[in-house]
């Protein structure tokens, strides 16, 4: 089961293929833009500067061809004049050189502003990205645990990575391109009309045709891309299950059949890919063809005008420069707009996460309590999710634990055992009632101080990428190797660790399947043993461990638990028969409490549960 | 790149075709401004409208030919990429089938999936981009320079200068940037890893009061990433900036030098437009190629990961000459001083095991988590090879048998009851392709899987991937039925009864006994009740044999075993 889970977790983080066509639209573009503007308050001066630069750059780029038209005409007239007298013409400072130098200055200015704004935008975008990312990570620690209960890990991750990268990309390229392209398009068309309205209209006609074709293409592209996505999912499913069940395929000597199945699926995927990629990539040559056909008509028309004398050589050349300057933004328009939209949608999701309700604040003047004796009292505790309709998940939990007692909590899945622990650790806040640790209301402690008193082992074992030794020492980074090994021995995991390729220095990787769930549990137990907390909480800590090892761990734990309060959730009742108090839970309420003997005699729910686990040997 | 060469070999013709068509496309692209220049020249010099029309018609034809070439090149290129992706995935999958369990674990299931799916997609995309954006660059540079020379020598020299400066800059910057981009990809992976740990481990982090520590860890990954992102993008903008500067300088110098040439009568006035356009095209193509080059490091990483899989020689492969299995010996399988140790491990997983599995008898293995029980099954099936001693099946060392032959004689129910998506019948027929519905029902009944009768569709009821639409106990029983359909000399049940309740467990074992009477049976279990009736019980403790015998003897003579028994009977019983 653990392996399956790992595989699934893995695939939900599968990076979305960059080139996948999915057009997202923001819910409230205006609001998000305003919010972005507010977030970047620290850089407004810079943004205004960038905007000014963009305006000047665009103006210079529009002016240059116009000015060069004049130069060409001037030169051509001078050349014709000198050729008519049979003299060779050479450019000198007086003869055209001055003008060419000024044109060079125009271009140089445009280049300067372009470089300036690109660089300013780049550092701004990456800076904003870092700020938002840090804000998100701080937010993570202020979110109540119930937020994570309802979220897929992959979804949370993509807020940090995909979404922020999209925003940053849009800021670096998209916005600048959007502004300069719009400016160049409008400016170029205006200048075209200055030269010749008829020619300008020809350009507009072909430009509109290009826009229409782009639209048609994008519809086909979306369709084909989704077919490909379907085929890809088929192959993904097939490959996932074949890899997960590889042992079976080999044990039943099904290699040939399985390969044939995979080959058939990849063949279909190849077809779908070919079609989708063609649609995606053929748009460029198609648009280029339209642009060129436009140029043919314009060239013919312009030549006619040139021969008739109503268009100068310089104007002819300049007109073509404007055509090129205006075509480029049009080809890119749909791409830029799509990427801006999906960036806004991403920003929206990032803000939504930042706006999630947070945990209640720690008390302003907290009580200090670091080495609790371990008296725990639940005083008429109720709990329910704030926004959930229906009855509370915990109704009137009321019990007391003396220091050093061993408390077992039993009940069916969903009875509320883990919720009880979550309340004790203040992962959730109670709705009403109080929880006391050493007679101090836990709400009057900081969460940090409260948790300092607990050591917890969960059923869901969590290890991070680092050595086994580092993982065991997570709660006590200063621990010596000898302490770590002692803890591992107490958790009965020392032998296993030594069978690993590098012993205690073996790196735990998420992909590593050499560590089974049971062994992971033992490692997390070692972690708590090393931390040596006043109160122990074991939540199904040995559910994936065999009975003998479990018993040995219990023996080791008994030493650890001596004189300490311990909460134990277990579904194997054999491990908790010696508890000082057993709480039997059902539907968020304690339905029975007492010792093993008392509860058996009572013949209630506990006795029934206990007898169902009895097996004749 | 070297990884791709064998995969491209079958498509040499297609690649050549793409090359030729690309040159046609580039030629057409450059010819269009040439024709525009011609039209200007005709307009100003001769004013011959008929000639202009002729050029216009030619331009129209060139535009069409170039577009056709571009579309064809695009088509062949996506086709090549699609075929390449298919071939890579097939090769990866086929190669994975030769992997032993250790081979597979070395890479990890999740990573294997990523490599076969998204890594290949990334490579495909990079391949398309390379063909479309990088391939035309040399043609564009060469043809651009040649056509400039055709117009005028001075213009040709200017063009060479422009090309060399920008191409040189592009190569230097790419070289620098590719390191940074590769590092950046590493930082991004790191962000993902640490974030994932933070989200999945939120409870533990809070329980251990490590929020500040984790925040610092995250911040560090963010900063590393941001710094290298700024560096990499600055480099890219540097190149773009250089290209634009050169472009501007080029327009101005063509105007100046070109006018001189026109003044000398060596060039026509319209040609200035043509040469300027050539320069712009060359620069544009180089910049576009640069954008692709920047994403290549990522695909190089993916390609390397694919290469790793393809390169990994299977740890276990069939001997050159194999012995056909001689069925029918009394001892189906025998362990002689078998040891097994993972490479580099300090301690052996199994040491010095000697025992035999005999026809008509049941052998059970019991021991702690991690004591090496499942490894024994995997050794028999040759998913691992022993590191000491030998395992013989029907008297022949398993290493001298072909893996296929060996496995044909064994029916196996793995610890993880995995089912494949499809129908129940299809899953069961894994064990025996020719099984009739009656056979299937019989196997299901023996495996106590009568619940299939109540399913809509019965044998044709759908099974989700991994069998997730069935409970653990149901999956186990289906997996047992699947194994029973296979007529084998040895049946291995690896912890296959753990999710069954005690009554079903007992009934199943009772029915099973008749079914497999003529074969050897190996049961790996954690529950004493499951194995108490076995003819021999092997007790494992830290990979060593702690006892071998019947239940009654072991209770008396083997402390480890009696310990296990008492751990399960303390206070009356236990639930598995």
From TrEMBL, chain A:
InterPro entries: AAA+_ATPase, ABC1_TM_dom, ABC1_TM_sf, ABC_transporter-like_ATP-bd, P-loop_NTPase, Type_1_exporter. GO terms for molecular function: ATP binding. Residues 376-612 form the ABC transporter domain. Keywords: ATP-binding, Membrane, Nucleotide-binding, Transmembrane, Transmembrane helix. The keyword Transmembrane applies. CDD domains: ABC_6TM_Tm288_like, ABCC_Glucan_exporter_like. SUPFAM superfamilies: ABC transporter transmembrane region (SSF90123), P-loop containing nucleoside triphosphate hydrolases (SSF52540). Residues 48-342 form the ABC transmembrane type-1 domain. PROSITE patterns: ABC_TM1F, ABC_TRANSPORTER_2. Its main location: membrane. Coiled coil: none annotated. It is a multi-pass membrane protein. The chain crosses the membrane at residues 47-67, 100-122, 175-193, 199-218, 296-320. It comes from the Bacteria. It is found in: Cell membrane. PANTHER family: ATP-BINDING CASSETTE SUB-FAMILY B MEMBER 10, MITOCHONDRIAL, ATP-DEPENDENT PERMEASE MDL1, MITOCHONDRIAL. This is ABC transporter ATP-binding protein. The lineage of its organism: Bacteria, Bacillati, Bacillota, Negativicutes, Veillonellales.
Automatic annotation (TrEMBL), chain B:
It is found in: Cell membrane. SUPFAM superfamilies: ABC transporter transmembrane region, P-loop containing nucleoside triphosphate hydrolases. Residues 333-567 form the ABC transporter domain. GO terms for molecular function: ATP binding. Keywords: ATP-binding, Membrane, Nucleotide-binding, Transmembrane, Transmembrane helix. It comes from the Bacteria. The chain crosses the membrane at residues 12-36, 56-78, 126-151, 157-174, 235-258, 278-296. Pfam families: ABC_membrane (PF00664), ABC_tran (PF00005). It is a multi-pass membrane protein. SMART domains: AAA. Its main location: membrane. Residues 16-298 form the ABC transmembrane type-1 domain. This is ABC transporter ATP-binding protein.
């Amino acid at each position: 089961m653990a392996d399956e889970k790992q595989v699934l977790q893995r695939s939900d983080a599968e990076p979305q293929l960059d080139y996948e066509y999915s057009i997202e639209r923001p819910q409230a573009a205006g609001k998000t833009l305003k919010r972005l503007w507010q977030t970047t308050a620290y850089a407004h001066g810079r943004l205004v500067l960038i905007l000014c630069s963009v305006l000047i750059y665009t103006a210079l780029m529009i002016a240059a061809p116009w000015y060069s038209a004049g130069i060409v005409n001037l030169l051509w007239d001078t050349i014709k004049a000198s050729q008519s007298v049979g003299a060779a013409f050479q450019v000198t400072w007086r003869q055209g050189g001055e003008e060419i130098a000024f044109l060079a200055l125009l271009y140089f200015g445009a280049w300067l502003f372009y470089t300036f704004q690109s660089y300013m935008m780049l550092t701004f975008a990456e800076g904003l990205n870092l700020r938002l990312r840090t804000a998100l990570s701080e937010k993570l620690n202020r979110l109540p645990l119930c937020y994570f209960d309802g979220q897929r890990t992959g979804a949370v991750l993509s807020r940090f990575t995909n979404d922020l990268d999209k925003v940053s990309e849009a800021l670096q390229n998209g916005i600048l391109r959007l502004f300069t392209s719009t400016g160049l398009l409008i400016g170029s068309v205006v200048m075209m009309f200055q030269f010749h309205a008829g020619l300008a209209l020809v350009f507009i006609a072909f430009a509109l045709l290009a826009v229409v074709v782009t639209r048609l293409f994008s519809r086909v592209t979306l369709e084909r891309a989704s077919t490909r996505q379907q085929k890809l999912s088929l192959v993904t499913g097939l490959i996932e299950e074949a890899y997960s069940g590889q042992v079976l395929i080999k044990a039943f000597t099904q290699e040939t059949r399985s390969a044939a199945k995979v080959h058939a699926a990849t063949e279909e995927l190849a077809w779908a890919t070919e079609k989708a990629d063609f649609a995606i990539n053929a748009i460029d040559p198609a648009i280029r063809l339209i642009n060129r056909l436009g140029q043919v008509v314009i060239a013919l028309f312009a030549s006619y005008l040139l021969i008739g004398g109503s268009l100068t050589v310089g104007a002819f050349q300049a007109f073509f420069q404007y055509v090129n300057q205006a075509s480029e933004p049009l080809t890119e328009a749909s791409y830029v707009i799509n990427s801006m939209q999906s960036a806004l949608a991403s920003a929206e999701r990032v803000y939504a996460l930042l706006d999630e309700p947070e945990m209640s604040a720690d008390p302003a003047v907290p009580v200090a309590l670091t080495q609790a004796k371990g008296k725990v009292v639940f005083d008429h505790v109720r709990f329910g999710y704030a926004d959930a309709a229906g009855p509370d998940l915990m109704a009137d939990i009321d019990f007391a634990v003396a220091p050093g007692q061993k408390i077992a909590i039993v009940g069916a899945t969903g009875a509320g055992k883990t919720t009880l622990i979550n309340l004790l650790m203040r992962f959730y806040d109670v709705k009403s009632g109080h929880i006391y640790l050493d007679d101090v209301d836990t709400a009057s402690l900081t969460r940090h101080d409260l948790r300092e008193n607990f050591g917890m082992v969960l059923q869901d074992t969590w290890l991070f990428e680092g050595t086994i030794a580092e993982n065991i020492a997570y709660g006590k980074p200063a621990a010596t190797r000898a302490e770590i090994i002692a803890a591992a021995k107490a958790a009965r995991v020392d032998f296993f660790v030594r069978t690993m390729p590098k012993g205690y220095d073996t790196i735990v990787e998420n992909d590593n399947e050499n560590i089974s769930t049971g062994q992971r549990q033992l490692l997390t137990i070692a972690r708590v043993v090393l931390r040596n907390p006043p109160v122990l909480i074991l939540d199904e800590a040995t559910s994936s461990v065999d009975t003998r090892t479990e018993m040995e761990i219990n023996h080791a734990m008994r030493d650890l638990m001596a004189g300490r309060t311990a909460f134990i959730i277990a579904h194997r009742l054999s491990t908790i028969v010696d508890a000082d108090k057993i709480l039997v839970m059902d539907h968020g309420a304690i339905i029975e409490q007492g010792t093993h003997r008392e509860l058996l005699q009572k013949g209630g729910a506990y006795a029934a549960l206990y007898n169902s686990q009895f097996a004749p040997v | 790149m070297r990884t791709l060469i064998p995969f491209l070999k079958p498509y040499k013709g297609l690649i050549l075709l793409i090359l030729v068509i690309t040159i046609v496309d580039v030629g057409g692209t450059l010819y269009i401004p040439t024709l525009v220049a011609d039209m200007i020249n005709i307009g100003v010099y001769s004013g011959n409208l008929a000639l202009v029309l002729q050029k216009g018609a030619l331009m129209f034809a060139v535009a069409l030919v170039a577009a056709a070439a571009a579309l064809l090149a695009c088509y062949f290129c996506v086709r090549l990429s699609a075929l390449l992706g298919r071939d890579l995935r097939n090769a990866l999958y086929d190669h994975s089938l030769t992997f032993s369990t250790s081979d597979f674990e070395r890479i990890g299931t999740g990573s294997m999936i990523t490599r076969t799916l998204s890594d290949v997609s990334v490579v495909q995309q990079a391949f398309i981009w390379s063909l479309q954006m990088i391939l035309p660059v040399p043609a564009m540079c060469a043809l651009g320079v040649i056509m400039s020379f055709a117009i005028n020598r001075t213009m040709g020299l200017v063009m060479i200068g422009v090309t060399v400066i920008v191409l040189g800059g592009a190569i230097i910057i790419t070289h620098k940037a590719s390191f940074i981009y590769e590092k950046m990809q590493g930082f991004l992976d790191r962000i993902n890893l640490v974030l994932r740990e933070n989200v999945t481990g939120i409870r533990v982090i809070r329980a251990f009061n490590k929020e500040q520590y984790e925040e610092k860890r995250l911040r560090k990954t963010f900063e590393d990433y941001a710094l290298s992102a700024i560096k990499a993008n600055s480099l890219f903008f540097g190149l773009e900036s250089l290209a634009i500067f050169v472009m501007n300088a080029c327009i101005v110098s063509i105007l100046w030098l070109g006018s001189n040439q026109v003044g000398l009568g060596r060039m026509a006035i319209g040609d200035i437009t043509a040469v300027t356009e050539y320069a712009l095209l060359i620069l544009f193509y180089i910049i576009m190629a640069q954008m692709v080059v920047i994403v290549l490091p990522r695909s190089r990483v993916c390609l390397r990961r694919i290469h790793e899989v393809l390169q990994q020689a299977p740890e276990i492969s069939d001997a050159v000459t194999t012995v056909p299995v001689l069925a029918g010996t009394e001892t189906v399988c025998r362990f002689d001083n078998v040891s097994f140790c993972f490479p580099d491990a300090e301690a052996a997983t199994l040491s010095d095991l000697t025992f035999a599995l005999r026809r008509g008898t049941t052998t059970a293995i019991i021991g702690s988590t991690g004591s090496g029980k499942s490894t024994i099954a995997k050794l028999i099936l040759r998913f691992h090879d022993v590191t000491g001693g030998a395992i013989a099946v029907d008297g022949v060392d398993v290493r001298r048998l072909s893996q296929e032959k060996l496995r044909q004689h064994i029916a196996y129910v793995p610890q993880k009851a995995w089912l494949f998506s499809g129908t129940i019948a299809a899953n069961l027929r894994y064990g025996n392709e020719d099984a009739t519905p009656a056979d299937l029902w019989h196997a299901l009944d023996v495996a106590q899987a009568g619940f299939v009768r109540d399913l809509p569709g019965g044998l044709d009821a759908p099974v989700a991937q991994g069998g997730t639409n069935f409970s653990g106990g149901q999956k186990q029983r289906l997996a047992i039925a699947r194994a029973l359909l296979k007529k084998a000399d040895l049946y291995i049940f690896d912890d296959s009864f753990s999710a069954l309740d005690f009554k079903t467990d007992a009934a199943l074992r009772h029915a099973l006994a008749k079914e497999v009477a003529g074969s050897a049976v190996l049961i790996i279990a954690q529950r004493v009740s499951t194995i108490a009736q076995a003819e021999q019980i092997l007790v494992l403790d830290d990979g060593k044999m702690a006892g071998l015998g019947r239940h009654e003897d072991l209770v008396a003579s083997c402390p480890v075993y009696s310990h296990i028994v008492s751990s399960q009977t303390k206070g009356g019983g236990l639930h598995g």
